[in-house]
Structure prediction request, 732 residues.
Amino acid sequence: MTGSVGTTVTHDRVQSGAILDGYRVDDRIHRGGTGSVYSATAPADHDPGFPIVIKAPLLGRGESSIGVDSFEMEQMILPALEGTHVPRFVQAGDVASTPYIVMERIDGQPLSEIIALAPLPPDDVARIGSALADAISSVHAQDVIHFDVKPENFILRPNGEAVLLDFGFARHARYPDLLAEEREFAAGSAAYVSPEQLQDDRSDPRSDIFSLGVLLYEMSTGKLPFGSPQTLAGQRDRLWREPVPPRAVNPQVPPWLQEVVLRCLEPDPEKRYLFAAHVALDLRNPEQVELSARAERTQPSGLLRHVARWWDQRHGRHLDSRQASAARLAPSIILVAVDTEHPDDERHSPLQWATKHMISLNPEYRLMCVSVIKSAPVGEGLLDIETTAGKHLQHKMRLRHWVEPLRVPASRISLHVVEAANAADTLLSLARANHVELIILGAPVPSRTKIGWWRSVASTVTANAPCSVHIVRVPERRLNLRAVDR
Amino acid sequence: MLIALLSDIHANLEALQACLGHAHDRGASHYVFLGDFVGYGADPGRVVEIISRYVADGALAVKGNHDEAIETIDGYFNDAAKAALEWGRATLSAAQKQFLASLPLILRQQDVCYVHASAERPERWDYIDSRSAAGRCATAAGTTYTFCGHVHDQVLFFETSRGPMREFRPSPGMPIPVHGHRRWVAIVGSVGQPRDRNPAAAYTLFDPARQEVTFCRVVYDAAAAANKIRRCGLPASLAFRVELGI
Prediction:
């Protein structure tokens, strides 16, 4: 934890054994630069039903009042956050007299323990990295930027989910930013801080994506991309300097992983991923990552490019985030369900039209094309199509064919063929796992009985989706005409 | 206790009624009117009548520069504003004029200060248009919270550990924690003549116990208010301002 605490004597505001508004302070679990965390016991009539901790700031002669601002910031933001990627807020004391926060205790493995074992195998980096990206994405979706993404602030639950801790540097878009303009303070943690933070810009969520890039780099190589500079000048290197490519440090790093890591670490936020959810999507679908020159780099770029970057940075390359915030309003990950088992179905063309329209809303969209095929026992077939692999390939080709007329660049789509008995459940779990913001799928064909709709994939998905659902139906008028023709 | 703070109503009856209804629905128990009840709009009489009735029931009210201009012709006003003030002088009853003249410039209640322009020399009608102006206002008020109007946009200024006050542009309807250990200056917005290109009426709710302030925007029949302005012969520019929020 970084603070502006100098060489002053500080002591804890609370001690083990103390009772704060009925909550008993037990053993200290952690002591950081600005405060301590204790395990705690709730009063019997206020049992939240899960284990809790109490966090209290340090108090001391010369203790910076900024530490108090930071504590207040966390006290404002934590209650506003929901979901499994942050500790649940229970209660807080008065900021001025008895500052403390009671929150859920997260049991699991600290990311710092995992990173100590780096370099990790690429599969582990992808798995853990996508969990971290999920947590960051969940916080960003709630209008909060964390600004202190580092190993000490992540805990991985036994189910693999990552939890983001410590919102003392964070910023909520709809709350006053108590830490704006606090130069020395805004700088986060030296090794993980983003170029924008060093320039006092607390407006762009892509700052957290840079810090995530540092974590991915560290997990892949066992090294920090910019070291751990102690001076501000040393930290400012990252405004223009490229790190040594991960593959030059660890040849085991595959090109797709290097592509993702270096894209997160672009000094210019406009060249980074716009959404943490897109980082997660790429880490989960390595074969879909579009490789650029970044993937192939084996040494840091030459002196000339360094100079060019330095020049850009010196002469105020504008870090504009306006377009970025516009893009954040439209769905950024869209899932379309395509029935590749019935390629001649007349719903395909309206489905393509709807998809084309929806992806046009967001310049930074990602499109997941999903085909759920029935599982059938497959033996040693004569033809390729009779084997599982052959069947998958066949459907993947149909998916590719389906999406072709939309003219979507390869980097923006991922194709998924899933064999499952229950299409609705499959679509829903894919949507949840990938932070899908819009599902597009066809309505069931009209049937004489109303039961058709209630049993359909469309109705189940609509009822249970974590996001908006766009149901595409062939206009009845056209169907009636067809009936007359017959 | 939930306090509704309404300022710069400017004789806009439709907007005032919409905001009072909105505040009532949200459980407002106390009302504070922060000045400029007249000027610009078509209904100075009805607006002053409603506010004086609220004051008789215990609401607080302070005087704005337009209210003052009803009694004294002093002060700088553009031509359209002058025309509206003359309309006000002609329309208001003697009792209504007396009510406006009797209003104080500034009020303090416990750790809250209410003023139309700035707590620093309220009679000068200075705009809080900068962080330093907000800082001087907070210092002069000497209270934790200061609520004012005069500037028609909604802004929240707050003190941090050092340097000048900071400025925050709130999102409508979002309760903002305003802890009492630092000073806050809230500009509550204009009920009758918003100027941020959004015609919706603006006012603010303050919950002292929860230490929360919520800046509200209320959609109302701005076209009706604008048509009345045209019908009573006031400059057309005043009608446009209400319709377009400019």
About this structure: The longest strand of chain B covers residues 201-207. DSSP finds eight helices and twelve strands in chain B. The mean pLDDT of chain B is 94. Chain B touches chain A at residues 156, 158, 160-163, 166, 168, 170-171, 174, 176-177, 179-181 (CB under 8 Å).
